[in-house]
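Worked problem 6 (solution included).
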Amino acid sequence: MARMRFSTTRPPDRGDRGSLSLFAVVATVALIVIIGLVVDGGGKVQAQQRAQEAARQAARAGGQAIQASTAVRGQGATADNGAARSAAESYLISAGVAGTVSIQGGTTIIVNSTESYTPIFLSIIGVGPQSVSGHSEARIVRAVGGVAQ
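Solution. The predicted structure is:
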């Protein structure tokens, strides 16, 4: 009786060789970009909030520097221009934020601040430092019984 032989070995299929490693590279790069968008996007938002908060607080600090002589006599509250500018600029310096201070009409302190955020992950693909800014105004008013005069 003749024996039948069955071959259990398959001829090698070389068509898919290396496709898993290509997928791994593409998936890894995509994940790094997604993580970069999340981390660096959050970092930029945080820098924006920091610049905005510094502008608010600097305007508030400048708004507290009023000319006492006219305010005490009831002639209205106006800013002491030199002291208000100095107070706002000092706050910006202490916060570590660059900015400008201007005073309009003796009653409005305007602060513009700028800050830079350098991406952590997205710098790998060439995204450079991002500039963010903040803006705030503080108005000095005289109020009697909670009503502006």
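Discussion: The mean pLDDT is 85.
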